[in-house]
Each structure stands twice: as C-alpha cells, then as structure tokens.
Design goal:
heterodimer, A: alpha+beta, five-stranded mixed sheet, four-stranded mixed sheet, 26% strand, elongated, B: 456 residues, alpha+beta, four-stranded antiparallel sheet, 36% strand
Chain lengths: 286, 456
C-alpha cells in the first residue's frame, strides 16, 4: 500500500514537471485545483464578489496548507515527442526469505526498458523474483521524449525465530503425527487387513527417517490372564516388528517390549476400550 | 399264544433292564460329579469331631491374657482350616474347660452335646520374658489310654512366638489325625501386591498374618515362585530392557545374580528337587518353554517347545519332576497341555474356552487351573477355578461365586488351594479346600494377585 502511494506520488510529480495531465486517470487534487480557479473567474456579481473571494481565498489557503504539491494551472502542453511513462509494482511487497514475489510493470512511449538486477525487459509485463535481501527494483524507461524511472521496494523478512530447535523437535513431532499404532483383534497377534495401510505408512516414515530408533510396546486388554497376556503382547510386538522388517526397516532400529495388560491406555470395561488396549504402540527413542 | 406271551414278557424284561441301566447311569453320573474328588488327603471322608476349648492361664502373670487370646485364636483357626476336622461349637462345650490332664471329664466331652472324639486342651504361662505352653491331644472315647499327644513349647513371650507355637502344635495334631500328612500351619504364601505403588513380591503366613514386602524393584514384578527348600524366590520382573527372570535369596534378603536371557522371560517354575527352572522365553523370537539350571548356568538352557504363539506358565509335576504342564496358544485360545520334561509326548488336556494358570497337586494326580469355558466376544463367561484328574481328564468346577478367579496354587498338604479372585470387587487372595468348600478371603485392600504357596 505504501508502495502504491509512493508510485502515485511520483506520477503526480512527473505530471507537474511535464505540465501534462492527459495520461492515465487524473488525480483528484488536480481536479479540485482547477475547479477553484474556474470559480474565481466566473464570479461577476458585485454583491457576491467579496463573499466568494473570501471563500475562495480561504479554500485556497486551506488546501494549500494541506497539499503543497498541488499543480499550478496547466499551461498548454509543449509539442511532442511525448515523454515516456513507467510504473512498477511488486506483489506481495513483503516476503519471507526464500519466498518469491511478482514484479509487474507498465511503460509507454519508451523504446528501451530495463530493470536493474534483471536487465532489458518488455515494455510491460511481469516476472517472479526471489530476492535474498530487501531490494529496491528500479525500472528505467527511455524513449524519444526522455527518460522515466519507477521503483518498487520488496522487503524480505527473516523467517521467525523457531528454526534452530526445529529440526530435532520436528522429527519427534513428525513421528508422533505420522506413525500410527497397530490394533489387534481379541486374543490375536496377526496384522489385521485394516491395519496394513497404517503399517505401510509407518514403514515408509521409518525408511524416510533412517536415524529414528523405536520401541514397539505390545499391549493387551484386561480380559485374560496376566502371564498369558504378557506372552501375547510379546507376540504382538514381534508381529509389528517383523512386518516393518519385511518392508525394509532395519531390525536393529527396533526393540520390542510386552506390557501385557499391565499398562492399559483405557480402563473402562467396554469393547471400545478393550480395542484401544489391544495394540502395538510405537515409542520414539532418543 | 404262549409264544406271544413269552415275547411280551421278554420285551418287558428288556424294558425293565433298560430302565435300571438308565437309572443306574443317572445315579452314577449324579454322584460322581463330586464324589470322585478324592484327593487322597482325607478330604471328603468322615471328619473327626474335635473339641478345642480355650487354653487356660498357668499362672497369674498379667501378660497371659493377651498371649492366650493370640494362641487360642491361632490354634482354633489352624485346626478349623485343616479341612479334616469338625470342630465342636464353643456353645456346646462344658463350662469348665480343662487346663491339665487331671481336669478332663471324659464323659462330659464324649457324650452329647459336644460328642467329641478328640479333645485338645492345655495351658499357657508367662515367666519373665519367656512363655511356656503345655498342650495335649486326648482320645476321649478311650479313657483308659487317652493321650495321643503331649507337647511342651517354650519361647520368648511375644505374640509372634506364641502364634508360631500354636502353628507347630496344630501341625502336630493334624499330622497325627490326618493320615500322616504334615500340616501347613507354618507354610507361607508369596504373592504380588501393588500396595507400595508398584507391583512387588510380598510374603505372608498361610493365614494372612505377617504380610511383608519382599522385593523393591520399583517396576513391575510378577509370578513369584518359592524354591522347594524355601531358600530362594524367583520371579519375573520388568528390567530396563525387557522382562527377565530374577532370583532372590531368602537367606541373604537380597537379589542374587541370575543370567539375562533376552526377549520376554516369564513365569519361572521350580523342579521339585530345586535344581531346574522352567520358564517362558521369547529369546528365539516367539515365546516358548525353556528349561535350565536353577543355578543360572546358561549353557544348560534347553528349548522344550517350538510352536507359533504364546507358550507360558509351565509347572513341574511335583511328585515325579518328569512332566511339565503349561499353557499354549498354538491352536488359538490358550489351552492346558502336558509334556515330558524333555519336551516329548505333548498332550492337550482342555478342549475348549480359555484355560490358563495350571498348578499341579503335590501328589501329581491333579491339575487345578483357571478356565473360561465359554469365551469370546459376546460370551462373557465366568472365569473359574477347575480341578482335573489328569489320568481321566475328568474335571470339576471349584469356584461358583462370580468374579475372575485365577492363579490357583496348592498347599503342601494338597488339601488347600490358594487363588486370586475379583469377586469382592478388587483382586484379592482367597483360599479354599481342594474340593471347593470353605472359601475364605485372605487379603484386603489394594490389589493382591498371583499367590504361590510354599512347598512345606
């Protein structure tokens, strides 16, 4: 936004210097300035003359105080050649380091258009740029009528502070998000058909993150006997480990341990709860 | 005509014989359901009617009263628990109980209402720091030569010492009147309790007195098994890396070294000579039964089973040491199997449901185990203790009172079974006679599981 205002200000200044108001849409300030002077010429009535004069003077003073850059009344334009015009904008004008922004430019009456850091470009167009640091791009348009330039500033912000701790944290976090526990049928330790996708996902993740070591905990529901459930939990842990190894995960990255029914995830006496407790649970190992 | 009548009478005779046969079969079936539990230990035979009046104070020492109370309660409880006596109700007893042989009025005890066959009596007296107990067992139906037992005990005047004296005297009586089988009043029960915050191994007297924590591992310790001579306790414990078999010396009161086998190692069991341990290990990738030296010499380790699925909870035949019963999931739900101690001659004993936790009777004839006969989703079958005659594979259900009943273990006299039950609302340790009668809760509070009765 600030950039756009900056550009329109440049435009305005150019128009004043060249005494031309014919190009593009007219800035509102110029219109008002003209209306005021017209008003001053039209007043002929004696009774109103002073009132109008005071009003007009007051308006001129007020507007003059606000807008010092108000163009003086345009004198008749000099003969051609027409001066070149140029606009340049960047969208977005603020990016994070590594992100791209799009430069868009428009020129007229120019024969030779170039942007610093890019080189010669078409008369109008757009291009993606990825500045490493905050950069002010300068568009130069040369034509028979002179030289015109426009600038656009792209502010590059540094990424937020987290990056340093992120790599180690995110591996464990990704592990927690990506690796799914494997659930078993009651008194069974073979991998259920509906768990194959989860297991494949686990294997893929572990192959992509080859430094992660894991413990697979075998758990059972509260039914059944302590000793048998510990052996069954051992079978469940081994079943998950063997499936991972078959999918290409190195066996020395995997430990198994059985908890039988000693460490349930859920303590209600319902099938929903029992299903929660019949699982091979993945634990990230530091 | 006569031919027809003859044929008719033959048909009638045949029908009659068939009826007799059917009724006979029915009666045999009806009675054999309970009758065949003859554990060879005096259970189920006519019980001896025994009168046990309170012992008397031998002198005026003020400490007598408390110690007498402890002694009388312990002795009564031991004899009542023995399973071979019918104790005469105290309300049927003559008011003047004898403290010495000369005070015994034979007629008053031998005739109704007490109608006792045997009389236990005696006295207790504190002198200084010592207590002295004199006790007799009299055959009151034989006034000419009544004395069966006369014993004197002296020890420190403490409640613990007096309780031990009562146990010793009770065991003498049970030995004399119970067919020469030693009593169990001095036996111990080891179990798992979570009352310290983690599951640790605890010990107690057979009557739940003196409950005390044995291990302090701070993780999860399970499946305590006391050695036949009572000097070592082995159990399974979650170490930093896996479940391992640990060995605790009862003499040194600390853990002693025992090899780590790797994998999940569970449910150790002693051979009756104390030289070997059988246990479940997944060191080979799948849980199987292994047997090795109890000394821990790992070269001796031998794998007995090699089947897919859990194999766990082995127990040696305590009579012969040559057979092992265990639990296998090789066909799906766990079932009880037996094999020779070298792994040959595998026999399946249970035919359905979910059968776990076998325990072999001291005489080698029976297995008790925990069985959910109808098991599966939507079939919330009860988990009860069953006894099976190994030779015939006949079984009888021993518990019927709800809850999950598991981990039975035999008393050294073969007359009692200790087990865990959730029937009271939490997992607690209970005892019963081996025919399922006289079920009593031993522990209260917290969670107390996996009882293991000492071998003597």
């Amino acid at each position: 936004m600030a950039l756009m205002l900056d550009v329109s200000y440049n435009e305005l200044r150019q128009r004043r210097e060249s005494n031309s108001v014919q190009h593009g849409h007219e800035p509102r300030v110029v219109k008002q300035g003209r209306a005021i002077t017209q008003g001053g010429e039209k007043v002929k009535h004696q009774k109103l003359k002073w009132v109008m004069l005071i009003f007009a003077l007051g308006a001129v003073i007020m507007l003059g105080a606000c807008k010092k850059k108000v163009a003086p009344p345009p004198p008749p334009p000099p003969p051609p050649p027409a001066a070149p015009t140029a606009t340049l904008s960047a969208n977005p004008d603020t990016v994070q380091k590594g992100q791209a922004t799009t430069l868009t430019w428009e020129t007229s009456n120019a024969t030779d258009v170039s942007i610093d850091a890019i080189g010669a470009v078409q008369a109008s167009g757009s291009q993606q740029v990825t500045p490493a640091d905050s950069t002010t791009y300068r568009l130069t348009a040369k034509g028979p009528g002179g030289t015109q330039s426009a600038t656009a500033r792209v502010t590059v912000s540094q990424p937020p502070p987290p990056p340093p701790p992120q790599p180690s944290l995110s591996e464990e976090q990704m592990f927690a998000q990506s690796v799914k526990d494997i659930y078993f049928d009651y008194d069974k330790y073979d991998i259920r058909a509906d768990q194959q996708a989860a297991l494949q996902g686990d294997a893929d993740f572990l192959k992509q993150h080859a430094t992660i070591r894991i413990v697979i905990e075998g758990h059972c529901d509260e039914r059944g006997s302590t000793e048998y459930n510990l052996a069954l939990g051992d079978n469940r842990g081994s079943a998950v480990r063997n499936a991972l190894v078959q999918s290409g995960v190195s066996t020395d990255r995997i430990k198994t341990i059985s908890y039988g029914k000693e460490k349930p995830f859920c303590s209600d006496h319902t099938e929903e709860c029992w299903q929660q407790n019949r699982r091979g649970h993945f634990v990230y190992q530091k | 005509m006569s031919v027809e009548r003859g044929w008719h009478s033959k048909l009638c005779l045949f029908r009659f014989l068939l009826l007799v046969l059917l009724v006979g079969l029915f009666l045999i079936g009806a009675t054999s359901a309970q009758d065949w539990i003859r554990t060879g230990t005096g259970l189920g035979v006519q019980k001896i009617r025994l009168a046990v009046p309170d012992f008397k104070a031998a002198n005026q020492d003020p400490k007598n009263a408390d110690l007498l109370k402890t002694f009388n309660e312990t002795l009564w409880n031991d004899l009542d628990n023995a399973g071979i006596f019918e104790l005469v109700s105290k309300s049927f007893m003559p008011t003047d109980a004898p403290g010495n042989p000369q005070d015994v009025k034979f007629d008053a005890w031998a005739s109704p209402p007490p109608n006792a066959s045997m009389l236990v009596f005696g006295n207790l007296g504190v002198t200084g720091n010592n207590v002295s107990v004199l006790g007799w067992l009299y055959d009151v139906k034989n006034p000419s030569s009544p004395q069966v037992l006369g014993k004197q005990y002296t020890d420190q005047a403490t409640a613990d010492a007096v309780r031990t004296i009562a146990h010793k005297f009770a065991d003498e009586i049970i030995f004399r009147l119970g067919g020469g089988i030693a009593g169990i009043a001095e036996s111990k029960v080891f179990f798992v309790s979570a009352r310290s915050g983690s599951k640790e191994i605890w010990g107690m007297d057979y009557d739940a007195a003196n409950q005390h924590q044995v291990t302090h591992q701070g993780t999860i310790s399970l499946s305590p098994r006391i050695s036949p001579d009572g000097s070592r306790l082995t159990f399974s414990s979650l170490t930093k890396t896996s479940w391992e078999i640990l060995m605790y010396s009862m003499d040194l009161n600390r853990l002693v070294s025992f090899p780590k086998f790797g994998g999940t190692n569970l449910s150790p069991a002693w051979s009756p000579d104390g030289s070997k341990l059988a246990f479940s290990s997944s060191r080979g990738g799948d849980s199987d039964i292994y047997v090795g030296d109890a000394s821990g010499a790992s070269r001796s380790l031998k794998q007995l089973t090699d089947s897919r699925g859990p194999d766990v909870s082995p127990v040696f035949n305590p009579k012969t040491g040559s057979q092992i019963a265990w639990v296998s999931g090789r066909t799906g739900l766990p079932q009880i199997y037996t094999m020779e101690a070298d792994g040959t001659d595998v026999q399946r004993l249970t035919d359905q449901g979910y059968a776990v936790s076998p325990a072999w009777s001291p005489n080698g004839q029976f297995l008790v185990f925990s069985w959910i006969r109808h098991y599966g989703p939507g079939a919330p079958g009860a988990q009860d203790i069953y006894i099976m005659d190994i030779a015939s594979k006949q079984w009888v259900q021993l518990t019927h009172d709800g809850g999950r009943n598991d981990f039975p273990s035999w008393s050294p006299d073969g007359r009692h079974i200790v087990f865990q039950s959730s029937r009271s609302g939490s997992e607690q340790i209970w005892t019963m006679l081996a025919d399922g009668t006289n079920q009593k809760q031993l522990t209260n509070g917290g969670s107390n599981t996996q009882p293991n009765w000492s071998w003597k």
